[in-house]
Design a protein that fits this description.
Helices cover 12% and strands 37% of the residues. The chain is mainly β. A hairpin with a 6-residue loop joins strand 4 and strand 5.
């Protein structure tokens, strides 16, 4: 694969999902914003990303739209692409993470090539990808081109604990978590020992484009199986409402990747159902602070209040504030 050169442009979209680690983990690939290797002539004008859950909950679908601009007065020919991963470490190479991949350039479907790649490609050591879908794109002088990609993925899963869910992600994610900022009741709901489903969108690779990213609008769907206080978001979203976590940026040079974690805390022995609860008013206050800081809307806060037992009046009153 020596024909991969500094003119190749790679797009990635990291995805991680559903519940299982300790010593038991599954991994279905990483991803990120489209990035370039030493290619400053092309600027990303806009990216719009929507990541949604399939109806049968078996996987996630990514709908990605990018606008690129040739900033020069010369014709520029590049190969664009999305890296792909072996579905699980140690499995057969034929088991790839991304399914049903499509590429459309200026409204026209284009044929892609999928192949295993050798080491040494953009960010390969960090993202550990094993292959790529690629296709050629020709930019006329000063031209803008619209690129759309769609694909389906499953992802990473962990039986916990929370450190297993972190899986080497930015340690700042844990800084404001309510259970790390409040006393835990002995034999109460244990959020530190949780299983998890995690979705991450790697945007820091976008810094390799010429200039800043003009606009970005990235949405990840909330999984309705998880209550709002079992959802961890990083960095601070623009809003969390109407079933979506959304980040919006302008003239953006990404500094951190986007992460959403869906947690299933370990229940106490006394639990009569699987609904995670706050055990103390201190926990409720700490989560409310977290929710407000991260722009969870009032209906989501009310949803958490409604699942708290009516006899836990002090906790319900806090969430009414």
């Amino acid at each position: 694969m020596n024909h991969f050169t500094t003119r190749w442009i790679f797009g990635v979209l990291l995805i991680i999902s559903a519940a299982a680690q300790g010593n038991d983990a599954s991994f279905g690939g990483d991803g990120a914003t489209v990035f370039a290797l030493k290619e400053k002539r092309i600027r990303m004008v806009k990216e719009t990303i929507v990541i949604s859950r399939l109806a049968d909950k078996s996987a996630w679908k990514a709908d990605c739209e990018f606008v690129f601009e040739n900033t020069t007065n010369q014709k520029v020919t590049v190969k664009m692409g999305f890296p792909d991963w072996f579905l699980n470490w140690g499995e057969e190479p034929s088991m790839w993470a991304l399914k049903d991949f499509t590429a459309v350039v200026d409204g026209q479907s284009v044929k892609t090539t999928h192949a295993e790649v050798k080491k040494g490609l953009p960010d390969q050591k960090r993202l550990e990808y094993n292959g790529a879908y690629t296709w050629p794109v020709v930019f006329a002088p000063k031209a803008k081109i619209n690129v759309k990609n769609t694909y389906v993925f499953t992802g990473f899963s962990s039986m916990g604990p929370f450190d297993g869910c972190m899986n080497a992600r930015d340690s700042k994610i844990a800084k404001d978590l309510f259970w790390k900022n409040s006393k835990q009741k002995p034999n109460g709901w244990d959020f530190e020992n949780c299983s998890c489903s995690v979705i991450s969108y790697i945007v820091t690779t976008g810094r390799t484009w010429g200039g800043s990213i003009g606009e970005a609008d990235i949405k990840i769907q909330l999984d309705e199986e998880y209550l709002p206080h079992t959802v961890v978001v990083y960095p601070q979203p623009t809003r969390v409402s109407n079933g979506w976590i959304q980040w919006q940026f302008k003239n953006w040079k990404p500094e951190s990747d986007l992460t959403v974690m869906f947690l299933r805390p370990a229940p106490p022995d006394s639990a009569t159902d699987k609904t995670p609860l706050f055990d103390t008013t201190e926990q409720a206050r700490a989560w409310l602070k977290y929710a407000q800081k991260n722009n969870f809307d009032k209906p989501l806060i009310a949803k958490v209040r409604e699942v708290m037992p009516k006899e836990a009046k002090d906790i319900r009153d806090i969430l009414q504030e």
